[in-house]
Write a structure and sequence with these properties.
CATH topology: 30s Ribosomal Protein S14, Chain N
Shape: elongated
Strand order of the largest sheet: 1-2
Order of helices and strands: HEEH
Function: Binds 16S rRNA, required for the assembly of 30S particles and may also be responsible for determining the conformation of the 16S rRNA at the A site.
GO molecular function: rRNA binding; structural constituent of ribosome; zinc ion binding
Family: Belongs to the universal ribosomal protein uS14 family. Zinc-binding uS14 subfamily.
Structural class: mainly alpha
GO biological process, one term: translation
Largest sheet: 2 strands, antiparallel
Number of strands: 2
Keywords: Metal-binding, Ribonucleoprotein, Ribosomal protein, RNA-binding, rRNA-binding, Zinc
Strand content: 5-15%
CATH architecture: Irregular
Radius of gyration: 14 Å
Number of domains: 1
Length: 61
C-alpha cells in the first residue's frame, strides 16, 4: 500500500497533460487500470466477485 502522501500527490493535476496517467482508486496501482471503472485488474476482480460492481458477471463458469 502506498503512503497517504503519495496518494494525495497522484490526485493533484499535473502541470502538463502528458504527465498524467491512470491509477487505481483503491490501491494506487499504476499498471493494468481499466479506464471505465478506474480500478486495477486485481481490485476489479475482487469487487466483481463480491458483487460490488453492478452489471459485471463472470464470463465462464
Amino acid at each position: 500500500m502506498p503512503r497517504k502522501a503519495l496518494i494525495e500527490r497522484w490526485k493533484k493535476p499535473k502541470k502538463f497533460k502528458v504527465r498524467e496517467y491512470t491509477r487505481c482508486k483503491i490501491c494506487g496501482r499504476a499498471r493494468s487500470v481499466y479506464r471505465e471503472f478506474n480500478l486495477c485488474r486485481v481490485c476489479f476482480r475482487k469487487m466483481a466477485l463480491e458483487g460490488k460492481l453492478p452489471g459485471v458477471k463472470k464470463a465462464s463458469w
